[in-house]
Amino acid sequence: MTAPVFVVEHLASGPEFVLDGPEGRHAVSVKRLNPGEDVVLTDGRGRWAEGVVKTAEGKDRLVVTVPEDVREEPAPSPRITVVQALPKGDRGELAVETMTETGVDAIVPWQAARCITQWKGDRGLKSLAKWRSTAREAGKQSRRVRFPEVAEAMATKQVAALLAGADFAGVLHEDRNSPSEPLATAALPDGGTIVLVVGPEGGVSPQELAVFAEAGAPAYRLGPSVLRTSTAGTAAAALLMGRTGRWS
């Protein structure tokens, strides 16, 4: 079993680091870590260090011995961003969780025309906070040291601008009347950025498809079956991870 990951705001080199607050409470009272056990400290932005528990104090304070060499994980290439249409209920958090575990680098909530869920006012702020919290916790659970960025919700025009600047852009869309190219055989870049759009349960509208196609993002399909919006992004990300060599 790999060492548990804990998030710190500022990670400095040794000789000791005090983990307190919510992370310290989780380490001491939930994980019940003992002296001599290994931990990983990270800022979630690529800086990380392996440490060894020196002592646990009270219910929320862990003293960790940290080596002098704080490491920096390079940004992965190509960078993979998934534009995720807003699903119903808590399926949005499910999508964020599994895409984070898979290795996606950025997630963009998208208010598509056929989305039933609407992010407006306080509800939108709370929903975005949930997505970001989910990405953080899933990043820790999957032992990542560079967590995915979760952007603020975008409208279709903003998504089109994002697609236009990518080295590879596509929209997951299945249409029996107009067969799309398989994502499994699409020509992918060796580096740069990949941006993939996942539509809502009702599908991407013809108007949105036209806007995205004009921005350089044609439609692609995953396979013969139609996946739910909360799982399509994860399946596509796994395919891209394998094809780009990031899982090699």
TrEMBL record:
Enzyme class, first EC level, given as a word: transferase
One GO MF term: methyltransferase activity
Catalytic activity: uridine(1498) in 16S rRNA + S-adenosyl-L-methionine = N(3)-methyluridine(1498) in 16S rRNA + S-adenosyl-L-homocysteine + H(+)
Domain Ribosomal RNA small subunit methyltransferase E methyltransferase: 77-240
Entry-linked InterPro entries: Alpha/beta_knot_MTases, PUA-like_sf, RsmE, RsmE_MTase_dom, RsmE_PUA-like, tRNA_m1G_MTases_N
Subcellular location: Cytoplasm
Lineage top rank: taxon: Bacteria
Role according to the record: Specifically methylates the N3 position of the uracil ring of uridine 1498 (m3U1498) in 16S rRNA. Acts on the fully assembled 30S ribosomal subunit.
Name of the protein described by the UniProt record: Ribosomal RNA small subunit methyltransferase E
Organism: Streptomyces clavifer
